[in-house]
Amino acid sequence: MQPPQPASIRYALATGFVTAGLVFSLILFDVVPHGFLLFFLLAVMLAGWFGGTRVGLFAVVLSMVSVAFFFIPPYRALAVNLDEVPYFLSFLLSSIVASWLGSSRREAEERQQAHLDELFAQTPEALLLVDLDYRVLRANFQFTHIFGYKFEEIRNRTVADWLVPEGMKEEAMDQRRRLADGLNVNFETIRQRKDGSRVNVSEISFPVIANGKTIGYYTIFRDITEDRRAQERLQKAQSELAHLSRMTTMGELASSIAHEINQPIGAIATNADAAVRWIAQSPPNMEGARESLDYIVRDANRAAQVIERIRSLLRKGPTPMGYLDLNEVIREVLALTRFETNRRGAVISIALANPLPPVIGDRVGLHQVLLNLIMNSLDAMDGINDRARQLHISSNVEGANVVINVEDTGQGLNAEDCDRIFDPFFTTKRSGIGMGLTISRSIVESHKGKLWASTGNASGSVMHISLPVVEKRQ
Amino acid sequence: MKAFGKSSVMVVEDDPSMRTALRNLLRSVGIDPQLFASAQEYLNAKKPDVPACLILDVRLPGMSGLDLQKEMKASGDDIPVIFISAHGDIPMSVHAMKAGAVDFLTKPFRDQDLLDAIHTSLSRDVVRREKESACADLRERLQSLTARERELLPLIVSGRSNKEVAAKIGTSEITVKVHRGNVMRKMRADSFADLLRMAAQLEIPYTKV
User: Fold this and answer.
1) Interface TM-score (ipTM) > 0.85
2) Best of B13, B17, B66, B118 to disrupt the A interface by mutation (most A CBs within 10 Å)?
3) Is B26 within 8 Å of B2 (Cβ atoms)?
4) For residues A138 and A129, is the Cβ–Cβ distance under 8 A?
5) Does A123-223 carry CATH code 3.30.450.20?
């Protein structure tokens, strides 16, 4: 759309249209005597369309003068015979309507254009309009703001040449194919600025369709660097909180864990003593000695594993996600808490579904969740003397999820607390800050899983962890 | 340990590594121990009728080692107990020793300490069993006495003369003399001093007139 011309040009144009109308009418007068009606109406309409209401009316006045002078008796005079007045008036009326039609159509278009321009300019997102070959037809100010390119610099240039960084071309082509199939495309990616720096964007593209034919594509870019940073900060804060909570739990467990390490060390010492005695026999019993050494190797590995698990729980920072067998995760945590459970006079039983399909998860995070649940159960059973203190841990496959249940015979939960226990700073214990379950739930949810509580069948409570099963890629 | 002839060493330890290690050590000195993973398993098991001792872990799932020791005492199971523990908890060891434990060893312990403790325990059990069987023999002899003779026995061993006894139970001195002879014969006492020793073993109370 052309920008509107200055007033002088528009009036000159109107004069031109009317003059042209007059010239055609005069030339063709002998052939079509009343042709002037059409020519002047056309001139007025065009003047209205190009110049707006006022210019249209200006053309109406010019036309009336010309018509009165040349075509309505008395000819060559600016007068109208009395009996020609109805004829002249109806022509005047038609002209005004024609002018109005032209100008209103024009104004509607201009308004629409103004809306569109305003939208383009004011949108906080970067907008890009490209043709079917991905050449730039239009870009807004925000686009320049994010990417550094002015519209003039990129006009008619193919997008992939300057916006898509190396290594992302393949992905960009995929998205183009999807767009060509008539799909809307919405994804997060990396684009490159004029100065070559990279920027995280969310990109939404959709085809522009006119009369059933795609004539180009719009793309909306949003700079998500800040979102990403905020997300990273949040993750970091969460991970620090989780780490802190792990440290607290490990602190509570310290003496039990020391015994857990002492156990295999004690076994190693005893087996070593046995080995010496087998060898001291005459003749030396090499079979006995060899068996002792095998036990020593096994127990040393076990001690090393316990220490490694503790180290990983105390380690700070993110831990990698990987395929996990939850049964293994359960056994690993129980190896850390066995002593603590004995110390608290509780009995642990397990019922693990075997085999269990894998889930994707962070081993340390899930250790923390289970550790937290087990410690809570032990705390809940501390004051229980009228029944056995039992902790039952089971794993099951339910639909597309693996579900772990941690069931105790502790003081139990009432129905309304089942939800509240996950609130931050909510606690039923005399000591504790009430963050354990809040953190545990956020860990499970970061695995796209669920953690919830229910009141147990008889006494105590049950905690449930549900994690989605994944297909293991070969 | 072969000195004890037939004997039995039992182990209650929940940690599989430690259990295996103990079995291995004991086998290397010629003992084939009986292993249990929990207090309940031990209680459910049938114990052999030979000199025995029990190596007992303090911390066990469910019933603890100390609870088991208490339970054993209450049910008359007097097998000597050697405690092993993963930590040297002094109040706990004092408690265990007061309740009659032979020893309290902290893991990791010296193998000789354990073997010595086992030796002590078995020796103690041999004596205990001898005592117990001697007692059982005496009780049998006591059972062979008539009611009248059993009534006389406390008075006799309290050093009363036949005359005093006769006065006490309202009979003649000669009858008491016959009863005394029967008691000596039935209890197979060689002398009065021998009868006194038996009475002490049977815990027959000294009575005043």
Assistant:
1) no
2) B17
3) no
4) yes
5) yes
